[in-house]
């Protein structure tokens, strides 16, 4: 065996100069503080140190192997004296690529970066034909750590994320087991300066532990029972490009169709018959197939003025569908109380969670989110390193189309108000050199009377050193 291995190693060593290995890393220090102005003693702070390492090995002129990993240590303070510590580690990427083919762990993203935007293990292939650019992808979240995944589809998924990762318990480490598939076609020659996109994203629930079955029984009074599986497909249409001069637009929407299970029928607690003196067993509900139809739409209007200190102005509006039963498909109810027919669930939920505000980040279920961004380099004409300083101001306005629930805590269930609040975020980003940079930001949330939370402040600062 040794005689066979040594010649192989010799050939590999002789050929190694034909390959190129590059590597590097970064150390990030992030600090954030949340302050409810009505009760400063209820504030909190988080100090996070993250070490990232990456390496890329090139093979010839077109193939490469990329690996990215990180270790993070987060120290959390809840005023006045509660302290907790969480250490996480993850393999962010491990992907072999050649031409338009990528195999391994990498980011999967739809053209709107909202329905699907997460890390998966799988395969992606991009190619062009007859003026159309195609992107095909398939992957799984089964081996992705929760800290590196944004997949949250049901209430059960959200509850699992509240359980801290524990290296001694494998069940606490990984994201929900789901398979995803994505197909996208981009047409760039139909109209000058415009790109039309058609996409199909699908998600298949692979969970097997504590999962409800069609026709199985459900206890209305026992928490922690089986949860409903959710299978979804999303069909997307989009168009983007230049409108006129420095004005651009980006318009897209997705229609979601899927299936789940809903507990149906009458229910009653177990009791005791006073006549026969015999116990009465609990009356159980029955799981039945239910259907899902939801949607989301988004429009962005952007003004780009690079000659004016790299000025960017963007107005965006996002609208998500709603359902009176709840914010996730496993909260769906029958068409009438204790009825035998599941209702149609229409609330929006994507494969991945989304959000860009500093404080208030509800998912776009039963929401109209309006965002106004103004970004520029105030010292862009300077000859010093301060020319790289970038300032951005974001204003978010949150309105719900109906008086139903939203996917965020703090809503007064008795309120009929539709306007929920406004948030203003200001951030500064400065990177004077390629190997280090810093940022600082603060946000102010002013909720309406429809919310039970008061005014809040958040401060955030970070320092990044690369090597």
Describe the protein's architecture and organization:
The protein has 467 residues and is mainly β. It has helices at residues 2-15, 155-161, and strands at residues 19-36, 44-59, 63-78, 82-98, 101-109, 117-129, 132-140, 178-187, 194-205, 217-218, 231-244, 247-264, 271-272, 279-280, 285-305, 311-320, 367-376, 390-399, 419-433, 436-447, 456-466. It has an 18-stranded antiparallel beta barrel. Strands 13-14 form a two-stranded antiparallel ribbon. It starts with a helix and ends with a strand.
Range of strand content: over 45%
Net shape? globular
Unreliable stretches: 1-18
Q: In terms of structural class, how would the helical and strand content be classed? A: mainly beta
What's the number of helices?
A: 2
Estimated radius of gyration: 26 Å
SSE pattern, N- to C-terminal: HEEEEEEEHEEEEEEEEEEEEEE
Number of strands: 21
Mean pLDDT: 91
State the separation between the terminal residues, measured CA to CA: 41 Å
Largest sheet data: 18 strands, antiparallel, barrel
Share of residues in helices: under 10%
* Assembly state of the chains shown: single chain
